[in-house]
Amino acid sequence: MWDERQQYRLAMERRILRENMPDFTFHDPLGEATVEGDWESSAGKKSHIVISIPPGFPEECPGCYISDPTPLLASDDTKLERLGSNHMMHLWETDHPGWAKLCTYRPEGWSASHSIEKVLHKAMLWIEAYEGHLSSGRPINHFLLDMPS
Is the distance from CB of 125 to CB of 144 less than 8 angstroms? Predict the structure, then answer.
């Protein structure tokens, strides 16, 4: 499924993750590649992050999900996945029922120069903002900067 250029890029991404983020592992079951791992927020809560690597990577933006805890709830106990694409909560409509799909990049803001490691860092920032949302009731966009396209 992956062409030679993509295979080289994915090998580079694996090496970077192995060196810099060893708690995250690369899985490539028959071309449906993911990067997965657990991360503990500064509040001490664990989340399981899943990065779904699309067939068009690196030109196409990976999907980023929180698969555990599930369901992820807003401060008012609404399931985040029910919010659909929501700018204030930095979410996309999920394509994995039960998982929250994080908005780490708008499609027009994605570049092949971005790494999976950077997507993971943005997911970690989202989780910290989510913790702020839970304690304050303010939307996640209150805690995160909007990046220009």
Answer: yes
